[in-house]
Write a structure and sequence with these properties.
This protein is 31% helix and 26% strand. The chain is α/β, with parallel strands linked by helices. A hairpin with a 2-residue loop joins strand 4 and strand 5.
Length: 441
């Protein structure tokens, strides 16, 4: 039995409490889901359990967390990893080593696992998560979904008593979401943190909670959310791609094969929403970066209204909101970010209100979901006629996701929506494109 007893926490001494007398029991072999909106404290709770908070972040913590007869709050972080470990919603913040095999080997080395057993375990986990083709490659060259699978492999290598999955289903393709759900069923004690309910959660969890007023509140009825994403092409302008070809080897390894992207035809019109689908590593982000001029194709054209665009022109016409918002946010506060792209305080105030942001908030102290709203606000002010949302739903609840899409739709933008969420996929009223192993259909 794992017991969280009377947990209270605030980031500032004497400040407003994020948690106030929070209790939770997780039994042996119990699977628990916490569903709560961005900024409610899900990730902070995970960091409290693993020891990162308050050790590396200022804060006032009280209460106990007992595993059997051991209060893990009395243990330092390395000692806690035997009891609890987590995956992060931000893949990049927890991938530290140069190759996937080194990432997986590290927790085994820390526990002085015998070398032959370590090697066998690393090989087994690389095969389990279909990463064996990336041996010797830099982890930084993996796609977002591949990085997620690597973080899951590292958690398996750690093999703690309690596995915490923080938005772990996000950025995974449908196949891998189903595999993760099945893997969770087989584990001992599991805590999953999510911003919205996914159909892959069905039948997995013994209990579901939300966070309300700093406490956990059990949900007897699952949240339902029916919606549609309208697509209203108005014909004012049309973005298209014709006969695109692009190939790329992993720069860090001569062992991996080249990835090739072939797109014979693609188009999206002003006011239209199209879905771009495909499993991890299929080429969705690569195609998006070619459209926006971040990568240069070897053949073919990207056009607006039939006129080919240079890479520079694409950057000025097509916005790309990357999977990880922190790759596009660089300045201290929300206002700093927004004022760097817009001098009109009236428009900045409009964006702050529209996306529910505090202009004085420090970006690096925000939740991952709120950072995505800052990212959306920046591109909203840039006013590009076409926009690509790469995994917009990651760490956002459906209300916030629809709010973002609606804001850009009302401005008449043509939208390309990349998602692995079946509910979002089925809600898009516009056309769908599917990428499979680099080929679009």
């Amino acid at each position: 039995m794992i017991s969280l007893n009377d947990i209270s926490f605030s980031y500032e001494k004497g400040g407003e409490k994020l948690f106030s007398s929070l209790f939770l029991n997780i039994g042996d072999d119990e699977k628990v889901l916490i569903l709560a909106e961005p900024g409610s404290g899900k990730t902070t709770l995970a960091k409290i359990l693993t020891g990162a908070v308050p050790k590396y972040f200022d804060g006032q913590l009280s209460g106990r967390c007992v595993f059997g007869s051991t209060d893990i709050f009395s243990l330092d972080i390395p000692e806690r990893t035997r009891f609890v470990a987590r995956t992060s919603q931000n893949n990049d913040e927890m991938l530290l080593f140069s190759t996937p095999e080194d990432e997986i080997a590290f927790p085994l080395e820390c526990r002085a696992v015998e070398r032959s057993i370590m090697a066998a375990t690393v090989d087994e986990l690389l095969r389990k998560y279909e990463l064996e083709g990336y041996v010797g490659c830099s982890s930084s060259e993996l796609s977002g979904g591949e990085k997620r699978r690597l973080s899951l492999a590292v958690l398996d290598a750690m093999a703690p008593v309690l596995c915490i999955y923080d938005e772990a289903f996000d950025e995974l393709g449908v196949k891998w979401r189903l595999r993760l759900a099945e893997d969770i069923r087989k584990k001992h004690s599991v805590l999953v943190l999510g911003s919205h309910y996914l159909h892959e959660y069905d039948g997995v969890f013994d209990s579901i909670y939300t966070i309300k007023d700093g406490r956990l509140e059990r949900l007897e009825d699952l949240p339902s959310f029916d919606f549609s994403i309208p697509s209203c092409p108005d014909g004012r302008s049309r973005l298209s791609a014709s006969s695109l070809f692009f190939s790329q080897r992993h720069r860090s390894s001569a062992l991996s094969k080249s990835f090739c992207l072939n797109v014979q035809s693609f188009e999206v019109s002003s006011g239209e929403v199209v879905a771009l689908l495909g499993e991890n590593g299929a080429g969705k982000s690569t195609f998006s970066k070619i459209l926006t001029g971040l990568l240069k194709q070897e053949k073919g054209d990207v056009l607006i209204d039939g006129m080919p665009l240079s890479q520079k022109e694409r950057k000025q016409k097509i916005a790309y909101l990357s999977q990880n918002p922190y790759t596009q946010l660089f300045l201290p506060t929300v206002y700093d970010e927004l004022s760097s792209v817009c001098r009109d305080n009236g428009r900045i105030d409009e964006a702050l209100k529209l996306f529910g942001l505090d202009k004085n908030a420090y970006v690096n102290e925000m939740s991952y979901g709120h950072a995505k709203l800052v990212q959306a606000a920046v591109f909203y002010l840039l006013d590009r006629p076409f926009v690509i949302f790469d995994e917009l739903d990651s760490a956002l609840d459906y209300d916030d996701m629809l709010k973002v899409i609606s804001a850009f739709s009302k401005k008449g933008a043509g939208i390309i929506l990349i998602t692995h969420d079946v509910r979002i996929r089925d809600s898009v009223c516009g056309r769908r494109y599917i990428l499979s192993e680099g080929v679009m259909r």
